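dude i think i finally got it to work??
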Amino acid sequence: MSRRRRPLPRRHRIGGERYFVWTEYLPDLHPSGWEAAELFAISYSDASVEPCAPIQLTDFYNESTTSVVVPVIPRWSPDGSMVAFLAFDSAKRDACPPEAPSSECPEPYDIWVADFDTASGPALSNRRVLAPEFGASHPLSWSRDGAYLATSKARAGGRTGIFVIDTSNGAVFDVSPDPEVFSVYPAFSPVADRIAFIGPTPRGDAFRHEIYVGDFAIDPQTQTPAPLGSVVQVTDKKNMKSLEVRFPAWSPDGGHLAFSGEDGGWLNSIRRLYRIASDGSAKAVLLSAFDESVQFSMSSWRTSP
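look at this
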């Protein structure tokens, strides 16, 4: 029997209702042998202590007996009208010969979007794959107007870059500030046309990265997204004694970024959750863990009720 994975909720208010959305593994295996998972939602109220029954939003398990599609990392659109998520497709993985290098295999994840309908459910409608030939396995981030999704992916040459996808037609644009330099984990600001991302240190130290913020704009001549401009460095691990930073997440007012970091070296690592002003000042450690089994990963902000 397969394990049940702890849900990772994302919340959003729609009209008078508020909802969590998460992915959870099912307690059995798909006939193909892969673990099966589905997307769920649950309504909640700050004033209510009574649990509500989860509502299943997807049914990939029963849609195919030859492969399994596993949805992960759901993300609400800014207005809560849509949900975007990644979905692993075992058929894509199985189509790649075992001896083939990963660089020659198609990315086994697709980017899905669907409308979140509360009138008859709630339920997902108009579910579709964006840019089916693109594929990406890194977290998604919505632009503040819902027009674009940002993610990162390794290019043919091996360096990971930042891409945005037009949610209306699936067009993909490389907006990396420098195509020759590694950049990953983009996050759109909720209040401005800016993207936070992870990039190498100015010194080029191996395995050491910093958080940067760049302006997102539409090229006036091509009317398509342009490479990020006016890039500024936010973190400086020279003063943080940190090996790694990961997964920047904007506060609702755009004034701060939360991110996970790893300090102390490989043999005695301390994984921490940080908050920093988006201009690079006022670093603060929010939470620390000395247990290697504890991994601070992607964070999510919420406003006070």
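Confidence is low (pLDDT under 50) at residues 1-16.
im so relieved honestly
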